Write the structure tokens for this entry.
Amino acid sequence: MIQLNFQSGITLNNGIQIPILGIGTYLANNGGEAKNAVLKALEVGYRHIDTAMMYHNETDIGAAIKESGIPREEIFLTSKLWNSDHGFNKSLDAFQASLDRLQVDYLDLYLIHWPVPDLRIDSWRALEKLYANGKCRTIGVSNYMQNHLEELLKACDIIPMVNQVEFSPYLYLHDLLHFCRNHDIQLESYSPLTKGRMLNDPALIAIAKKYGKTVAQILIRWVLQHEVVVIPKSSNADRIYENSDVFDFSISDNDMELLNSFHKGLHTSWDPSTAP
Ligand code: NDP
């Protein structure tokens, strides 16, 4: 396995690098929590931030980026098109509104948050236009299962660079991972910590003890060793650091297999296979 570090990136299908580890911000609210979390993350060394219109914290995140003093081009910033903003013109407007709230003039990655039936191809055309106009360096989708991707691949001019989906040992989407790999689409894992739900699993705790790491670190490292980008969320300074301290060990092949076997189809937010 290649040696990974905090600065490691994965090259997307258009040559742009995405940092392998980013900070998630869902439920980090706009009243200062998201701002403090992002400031802390940037201080610790994160250079990749995941937000969405739907998280209602873009203003806070923009403020944190400004206040950090870190040059904009050193930060990989993702936002997402919400379900009520689908359609060609509405998508363009929603993108601009996200830029305005974030106080930036481009995004590194803009994702369709959810495969909304009927309108998602029109929305993709809008993302292609934003990409062609240099408003976002990469474009992608989220919560797309294989059927959604097959539909898009038939219709698109630009193949999505990223598909962000829930991915953890408890939801090991092996077939989707390989489908994406075969089509040059990078998988990105959300809810890698199962939103905290499985952190007391004795089998997981046993593996963490063996490596002298925390259960959260094992879950993050498992994602990375599948060559999947990962965006654990924390608003707590200690845990923001803890979640980044995953580069001084590696999980053995046997233990990777063991973790793979934890799969039980656990969706902690929603199940995108319900979207026709
Ligand atoms: P995670 O799996 O990242 O878990 C976050 C929860 O775990 C929080 O309650 C956090 O609490 C806690 N936590 C964080 N670190 C630790 C730790 N080291 N030990 C114990 N508990 C910890 O869930 P998310 O659903 O937030 O997923 C991550 C990100 O992915 C989101 O924030 C968002 O950016 C994105 N996402 C995208 C979705 C999509 O549809 N595209 C859907 C869901 C998420 P605390 O903050 O107090 O540390």
